[in-house]
Structure formats: structure tokens, C-alpha cells
Amino acid sequence: MKKILSLVLVVLMVLSLSTAFAATPVAATALAYKGELEIMHFSTSEESEGNGGSDGFRTTLAAWEAAHPDITLKQNVLANAEYKTQVATLAAAGDLPDVFLLQGMNTISWSSQSLVMDLTDVIKNSPYYADYNTAYFTPFTADGKIYGFPALTGGTCTVVVYDKAMWAEAGYDTFPSTWAEVEKASEYFNAKNISAISFGNGGQWQMNSCFLSTLGNRYTGPEWFSSMIAKGGAKFTDPEFVAALAETKRLFTETKIFNADFNAVTNEDAREYFIAGDSAAFIGGNWDESYIAATLKASNEEKFNNMGFAVLPQPADATKAPDSQNIGLGYAVAINPKLAADPDKLAAAIDLAYEITGPAFSTYVAENYALGGLTKAGDVDLSDKDAITQAFYNWSYVDTSTCEIYDSYITSAVWSVLNTDLQTMTNGGMTPEQVAQNAQAAYEANY
Fold it and tell me: Of 334, 3, 304, 313, nearest to 147 (Cα)?
């Protein structure tokens, strides 16, 4: 019932704010094409509730369609997990839609199969190119060519959202900076039938994106992953990475820090534990933080005002980057190369890609959610925002250092193996060394 109440409250809040959030108008470019243009994405109405990126994406899509009444935008909108499965199926069949969202991990494989259009010149000729954050193009680049416009918002995948009042009761003025302190605090919370931290890895990707990418950086530093991307000699079997796997296994199998069902529930389920007070903290992404904040602001103002943000605690044997959190844009707007046969339709698809990643989108998410996108929105004035929004913006973009999100790079053939094995390992069924060996074998066979 608590989960249902949270969802209802967020829906009501979003509906009440819909008239207040005016969309930044897209450029009304004159286009010769008249007809249907397909786009496939995962910004469902449910996904956009409290999620700045998805809300901005849907809002900008609607503005573009309104500005081009002669074009019918045929949207295939799926839930996130279903989208990943369906787009992979369509890619395997060579039947991708006109416009779709490309994950960085698929760039090398799909570009080599001519499934995605080379957009290098298109991007450099964009009217907004001077304002692009060009670092975001890296996961969507192969052999010097760019295959997508980084989409949605540039935000963390690994934020610790905690209840300041609950941790103060446990004897901590701020969230602990070491896992040893968190383990000690968990004794206090467990005695109250509360988890110190809630986490959900039911989809398997969460342990990678929302935990290991950052924890691993604490052991290896950024050079190791840069070498993995460049095939520069680093290996999953390197001692530093195996140590990160060992600490992950220890935290989830040998302590009582996390909810016991972490491998059975999703991040959406786990954040509900935090909202309901069944956990004192939660680890997830910026989209989870947006949902939690929106839900609590509408339903529990006291708990909303007690929200705090922290990076992952530092392991005792890690020596790198103690204030790091991972950040990036994991998807890009890509175009089917088959559109080259219809120049007018291709021009329409390019214009769509320009606008849904351009200033209309970036200004909307900056003004309404204090988030960033591919296109710089200029100085973000947060003076009219609540203290929690300001605090999260500063935590995300000012007060912490950043590292890469592992599965934005390399290839899905590697991550599918690692993600499955991470779940098995944290269920007690594999050793860190076995996980590392399997990941390295998949890397050598597929990358």
C-alpha cells in the first residue's frame, strides 16, 4: 500500500506541475519531408514521473512534433528493461527503426555491422555544436567516427541517498565515509528491523552500473578502465579489479548492511524501502533520486527535508579517488543508415536528433530539475529551487570527482557475462577470481 500511495502521489504531483513546466520551444526548421517517422525509446509516462531526463525527452519530442504538423511521429515506447531486449532483437534482425536510442556498449559492434549511421559530419555541422559537451561523445565513437547524439541527462549512476535524522539517531552527523563505519551502524538499524542501505540488483545491471563502476575506480583509478577501453593491456584479472570484486562480495554476503532480497528486487523496489522508512539509505542513480525527492516532497515533507547525499564509502584496502562517483550519458540518439535512401526523411530525422538533444531539452531539464544534457544550458540559476535540489546539483557537478560508467563502453557481450556472474557471486555461488576470469574471457572473445 505504501508503494501504491507513493506512485499515486507522484502522479498527482506531476499532473499538477505539468502546466507550470513550460517547454522551451524547439527550432521550427522548415522540412520538406511529409509522412511518418519512427522513433523507439523508453521514456514511458511511468518512467518520466519524477525523472528529469525522461520528462524532458518526452516534452521535447512533443514540442518537435507540434512544430512539424506534416510529420507523424510514430513512437514505440517501452519500459527500460523491455527496450534493451527489443532493440537488441531488432538489431539482430537488421530491422531497427528510423531513430532509436543506442547504448554506448553496443557502438563498436553495431557500427561494424552497419546498423547505425555515421553521424560525424552531421554532428559537427549541428547549429548547437559549439555548446556540446564533447566528452559525452566518447562511448558512441568507434574508429574515430561518431554514431549518436548523447541523450537524456548527464547524471550519476551511484549516489547514496540517506535520511539524516535516521543516521543522527544511530550516532552519525553525516553519512559514514568508510564501510567499516556503515557495518557498525547496520547493527543499530538491524536491531530495529531496518536495513542500513537498500539496493536492488534484480535486473542484474544495477550491481555493475550503480555500484561496481564506482567501487572499482576506488581500487584501480581511472587509468585502468581507460586501458580496458583502448585495449591497452589492462585485464579484468588484474589484482586491483579482483580486489574490488572481493570487496563487493564481502559487503553483500558477509555483512548485514543491505536488504536480504537485494538480488531479487529492482532499484525501483529498493527505493520504495527507503521512502517507507524500511532502510536508512539507498544506492541508485540520479533518476532514482529524482523519484524519491518528488515522492517525499508530495507525501512526507519532513523526510524530504532530511535527505542527504553521499558518495560510496571507501573500502579499507582501497587507495584511489575516495570522493568519486560515476557520471555520463549512457544512451545516444542514433539513426538507421537505411534513411540515406530518402534524403528528405533523413533530414527530418537529423533535425529531430538536433532538437531532442539540443538547447530545448537542456534548458528544460536545467530549469526544472537542475540537471545537464549534451548541450550546455549556460549558468543554472537555482535560487528559486528548494535546498534539496540545490544540494543534489552541487553534489553531482561541483563537490565530487567523477569516473566512468563501465557499461557505457566496450560491448554488451562482456557485460552480460559479468552482470550474470556478479549476481551469482553475491548470492555466494562464485569466487571473485572466477568472475574475473569469465569476464576476461568474454572480453578477449568479443572486444
Answer: 334
Quote the DSSP letter at residue 209.
I
- Nearest one of 83, 11, 73 to 42, comparing CA atoms: 83
Q: What torsion do the CA atoms of 293, 295, 297, 301 make, to the nearest 10 degrees?
A: -110
What tens digit of pLDDT does each residue of 399-447 get? 999 899 999 889 889 999 999 999 999 999 999 999 999 999 999 999 9
pTM: 0.79
Q: Which tens digits make up the pLDDT trace of 144-201?
A: 999 999 998 878 999 999 999 999 999 999 999 999 999 999 999 999 999 999 999 9
Distances in Å between the alpha carbon of 87 and those of 108, 292, 356, 370? 16, 29, 20, 30
Helix, strand, coil fractions of the chain, as percent rounded to 5: 50, 15, 35
Laid out side by side, the sheet with 331-335 consists of 71-77, 35-41, 99-103, 331-335, 149-151
Q: Which residue intervals of 192-300 are DSSP H helices?
A: 205-207, 213-220, 222-230, 239-253, 267-276, 286-299
Q: How many CA atoms lie within 13 A of 234 on its CB side?
A: 16
Task: Give 211's DSSP letter.
Answer: I
Burial of 325 (0-12, 13-18, 19+ CB in 10 A): buried
**Integer Cα distance of 197 and 102 in angstroms:** 32
Q: Which amino acid type is present at position 332? A: A
Would you state the cell numbers that stand for residue 406, as one nine-digit string?
563501465
Q: Are 38 and 98 in contact (CB under 8 A)?
A: yes
What cell numbers appear for 48 in the block?
A: 518520466
Do 88 and 412 form a contact (C-beta atoms < 8 A)? Answer: yes
Q: Cα–Cα distance between 257 and 196 in angstroms, integer?
A: 5
Distance CA 286, CA 39 (A): 25
Residue 384 DSSP class: T
- φ/ψ bin of 159: left (φ > 0), alpha (ψ from -120 to 50), beta (otherwise): beta
In the chain, DSSP finds a helix count (H) and a strand count (E) of: 19, 13
Report whether 91 contacts 382 (CB < 8 A).
no
